[in-house]
Amino acid sequence: MAIKVLVNDSNDRSIALVTNTHALFFKQSAGSKSKNISVAEKEIRDTDLSQCAVEFSEIHGRNFDGYIPVSARPCFGCLGLVSLGGDVFLCVITSAREVAAVRPHETVSRIYGVEYYCVNRTGFDHLIESEVNTYPVELDPLEPGRGQQATGWEHPCLPLRKLLSDGTFYYSREFDLTNRLQDRAGSIEPFDIASFDRGFMWNSHMVEPLLQFRSHLSKIDRIKLDDSRILTCVIRGFVESLTIQRPISRNDSRGRIVGLPGSLTLISRLSCRRAGTRFNSRGIDDDGHVANFVETETIIWSTEKLPNTKAIGFSYCQIRGSIPIFWEQQTGLLPNQQKIHITRSREATQPAFEKHMEGLVLKYGAAHILNLLSETKTGEVELSTHYRYHISASPLFVGSTKSHQNRYIASLLRSTEYDFHAETKGSGYEAASYVKHLVKQSLDGFGYFLIEDSKIAQGDKINTQPILQQEGIFRTNCLDCLDRTNLIQGILSRACIESFLDERGQTVGQEFWPQHSALWADNGDALSKIYAGTGALKSSFTRSGKMSWAGAIADARKSATRMYINNFADKDRQNTIDILLGRIVGQETVRLHDPINDFVVNEMSKRAEEYTLKKQITIYAGTFNLNGQTAGIHEDLSEWLKPTFNQKLRVRPDIVVVGFQEIVELSPQQIMSTDPMRRQLWENAVLKCLNKHEENEYILLRGGQLVGAALLIFVRSSEISCIKNVEGGLKKTGMSGVAGNKGAVAVRLEYASTRLCFVTAHLAAGFSNTDERNRDYATISNGLRFQMDRQINDHDAIIWLGDFNYRIGLPDDKVRNLIKMGDLQTLYENDQLHLQMVAGLAFSYYREGIITFNPTYKFDIGVDTYDTSEKARIPAWCDRILWKGNGLRQVSYGSSSVRISDHRPVFAIFECSVSIVNEQVKEYLKEKLYKQQQNNKNGESKSCLDADNEDNDDLLELQPLSTGLPPPSSERQKWWLNDGLPAKSTIQVPPSGQRYHQQPVNPFKESNGNGYIQSDHKTYHGELLDRNQSDLSPQHRNLQANIGHDNSGSPCRSTVGLNAISSYRDVTPGGGIAPKTTPHVPKKPIDLAYSPQKVSSS
Predict the structure, then answer these.
(1) Of 367, 324, 378, 369, nearest to 346 (Cα)?
(2) DSSP 255
(3) Is 499 helix (H, G, I), strand (E, B) or coil?
């Protein structure tokens, strides 16, 4: 059924996808009309701009005057809507070719071209005809799209067009391509788009708004929309069919029937749950999704033409996927030199591992793991060791035994370790066929899916009858799940087909197996290009059954090409994938104009307390500069990690964050590389201390290290199920970002629905290097990125801890005397970090608890005496903990007297309010509200395209946003006009000798008095008051007493007196404080500046 794309620009832009009977209209809503606005205003209005009105109706009776074809290209389906830069784009398929016929009336097409039409303006229309992939040819993976795009202004969707047009995306307008034949064979509705598997649907982010629109239609309209085939779902991977001809000979030498005419189809579905490129997507996530997860299905369909015969369908499914533990691998310019890092402890990994395995068992039945990793390569051995541990710890593995062949046998989970390279070394890849003998028990036990189709006597209705079910699945993996995995899966596929033929007493012609091998070789190349950028290695053997010199040379060329792509092109490829899947921070789905839905969203926001539970958790944060010492590893760290006052409260932190600096000596040999051995020793020491006399033990969630800086996150075992999306990041700042002697390590996580981020940093040293420390902070804050382009500030609560190296701007003797006197206030007033924060030059909007402990640097090791060496460093608060976040409240801030270093460790304890959303209650409330509004609006039918010119806000029941405020204003309702009366001012002229007093921020809040107070000073127009403290107004005198606490009563970072404030600012006649120039930062004292001994860094 052909689809036309029409556009009407006569009034407000409208695009229509028109079939022979129905049309789907898209029109800009009131919020999506782009005007000449500033960039900043546009960013603020992005959410409002990403709106679109949609309507589905019959074409009979509709007026199409003014609609013209938007392009000469055909349209084969709509992939959905996407918002980029505030503009809304409609994506349609414009070029495709049929590549497979799974069974009669079930065809699959490969996408070779898509187009994005802007819904809300015409500014991109001249770029529609720009070609990305005119002909279905293979693009150069090094330079995709080169020479095909005119220079100049690029279409904002060009990267998405290139991605969707690269020949790896497939769709079908006749059946559900996201589910295997066994899962859809008995489906009553053959094309119910809502039942498609979202895990394999790569346009799920774009099509989600339209699926929500579909769900709000009546049942009849939903069926009509599905029958129109306007909405299309795509998979990524590989699909291809080959026709199998019936041989002339009907019997072979053994008397078996030679036949099975029909088609051989191979379908590989790549999951979009943890999609990405080779080194950007490894291992598992907290939801149990693994990288490069592919479901591959081999289908044989035999259509017999003889009377009284039935069509036979055979299906055999296998899966591959990255090793389901938390691990990462950095890119490198040398092959096989990329180090593997396991980022989470075994205890913290087990819950995610269980989710993954339970999901496999629920969907596929029993699972047999086939691990092809090497037993000699260090990184792969470490992965196999952890993998083996998690398998044995799984409840699905209970009652299993281990045989002499290193095979695990269990009822629902089995495992076989097969070192592919060791087994095929010397004898060639032909020896890999032996693997089918190792797994024969599971191969026979799992079986395959078999179905028969026959026509009922009355009419042409097809009667589908399943004969056999596949009861289990093989999960094969190597390191990348590409080359070795594809070869082994091809062997298992052949073994299962042979078993199927033996059961039926049939065989196939000689041309069948070469075609089968060619399909698997093409499948391996396609999946390898998606994940690694080149075709699969060992594909020449998969095709021909033997390895040649030409094949070896081709593999070497592919390895070199992979190295280039992985190091220089994969970052952009990953970013495009994240945009397509809607995973970029701040990226939202397009909002469809729907007054009922807008009301529901608004009401759900107000009633969030009904489905959200607030929970208080305790976070301990501690930082310690070890000065490269190891003597304290075996000492008791309880004074630092378990403060005495905290033990009296009987409160144990739910999360423990420990930051170390100079965990190794920062020698020239060390600053360019990271040695994890020292960090692992301190991990064990901290864990031993935390779990002493504890029933609910702590487990290591994640650790990270940058040369000398290390960050360790420990979580109570009872809380691990609430934590997900744990990621780490590093940022070097030493030697202009080249060396890792200075920099930061960060870990972000989500506790239920609250995003937390922890950063330990070691900033530039030196007394006078304040500006360099500020630059280090800015580099880390803006440059450290997590996955999906998340930054440090994209979190609800942030805690910085570390050796920030800010000093006290006073002479050494004065600092030491003030410490003896206990005058911490004067020291703090001259603290460089405090002054930089006041000036807004570093750590803007962060807070620090009141400092009640002595400077933590620099001591003689083993005693409580400040530096007595010839350098005589000035004592300073180098070690600090800063924080920000509405849900955070600091409970304590202190230091302990652990004397193993020249620094003293610092700790802080926080209470954090986290939100736990009950998704079931939320969905129930949402559905209830929607039905109520739908019933209220019943009978008030009006085209959304016609109603769109009305103010959207007027369609909602306007309610006050907060207690004490009036309802929001609109064109029909204004809070400042009471019952249509004109607005007038109620402020009276102040009496003589009085001036206006500061009022509450909320003007609607009741206040006592008339707002005027008696003035003690005579002021004249243009005359400034005296700047002495005695001339300050009473509210400013109160300010001095209240400094040190915020509005909530929590201690703040500033304890400076009013005399310090008045030195930076001027007091205006109205009593306000006017900003002055940036405060002077105390420099190095003169007596030290000319000292022959250079002041060195810590």
Answers:
(1) 324
(2) S
(3) helix
Interatomic CA distance for residues 618 and 890, integer angstroms = 10
* Residues 173-214 pLDDT 10s: 999 999 999 998 766 555 778 889 999 999 999 999 999 889
Question: What pLDDT sits at residue 674?
Answer: 67
Average pLDDT over residues 318-347: 87
Q: To which H or E segment does residue 568 belong?
A: helix 549-568
Cα 713 to Cα 619: distance, rounded to the nearest angstrom: 10
| Residue 66 one-letter amino acid | G
- Lowest-confidence pick of 154-168, 252-266, 1066-1080: 1066-1080
Total residue count of the chain as it appears in this document: 1098
Q: Which residue has the higher pLDDT, 984 or 91?
A: 91
Helix (H, G, I), strand (E, B) or coil at 210: helix
CB 366 within 8 A of CB 472: yes
How far is it, in rounded angstroms, from Cα 779 to Cα 774?
A: 9
Angle between helices 549-568 and 570-580 (to 10 degrees): 70
Q: Is residue 487 within 8 Å of residue 436, measured between CB atoms? A: no
Sign of torsion over alpha carbons 1084, 1085, 1088, 1089: positive
Burial group, residue 332, by CB count within 10 angstroms (0-12, 13-18, 19+): middle
Q: How far is CA 1075 from CA 669, 837, 1044, 1084, in A?
A: 48, 15, 20, 26
CB atoms within 10 A of CB 1072: 13
CB under 8 Å to 661, separation ≥6 — which residues?
623, 624, 625, 626, 708, 709, 760, 762, 802, 803
Give the tens place of pLDDT for each residue, 546-581: 666 777 787 788 778 878 788 888 889 999 999 999
User: CA 519, CA 99: separation in Å to the nearest integer?
Assistant: 12
Query: Residues 6 or more apart from 757 whose CB is under 8 A from it?
Result: 746, 747, 748, 792, 795, 797, 798, 799
Residues forming beta bridges with residue 664, ordered by sequence position: none
Q: What is the full DSSP assignment across 461-498? A: -EEEEEEE---EEEEEE-SSSSHHHHHHHHHHHHHHHH
**CA angle 839–841–842, rounded 5-degree value:** 115
Least confident of 378-392, 420-434, 550-564: 550-564
Number of H helices, E strands in the chain: 29, 40
pTM score = 0.78
Q: Is the predicted pLDDT of residue 519 greater than 90, yes or no?
A: yes
* Range list of β-strands (E), 195-339: 234-244, 257-258, 262-270, 294-302, 311-320, 327-329
Express as a percent the part of the chain with pLDDT over 90. Answer: 49
User: Is the bond preceding 858 in cis, omega lying within 30 degrees of 0?
Assistant: yes
The pLDDT tens digits of the residues spanning 884-912 come to 998 899 999 999 999 999 999 999 999 99
pLDDT value for 185: 79
How far does the chain reach from its first CA to its final CA, in angstroms?
Answer: 74
Residue 1031 DSSP label: G
Packing angle of the helix pair 378-393, 346-364 (nearest 10 deg):
70
Cβ atoms within 10 Å of 389's Cβ, excluding its own: 15
Pick the more confident residue, 365 or 672. Answer: 365
Phi, psi dihedral angles at 807 (to 5 degrees): -110, 180
Range with lowest mean pLDDT among 123-132, 195-204, 605-614, 794-803? 123-132
Instruction: Please tell me the distance from the alpha carbon of residue 826 to that of residue 839, in angstroms, as a whole number.
Output: 18
622 CB neighbour count, 10 Å cutoff: 26
Q: Smallest Cα–Cα separation from 434: which of 447, 416, 446?
A: 416
Name all contacts of 579-582 with Cβ < 8 Å and 24+ positions apart. Answer: 579/82, 579/84, 579/159, 579/160, 580/160, 580/163, 580/164, 580/202, 580/203, 580/205, 580/206, 581/202, 581/204, 581/205, 581/272, 581/275, 582/205, 582/206
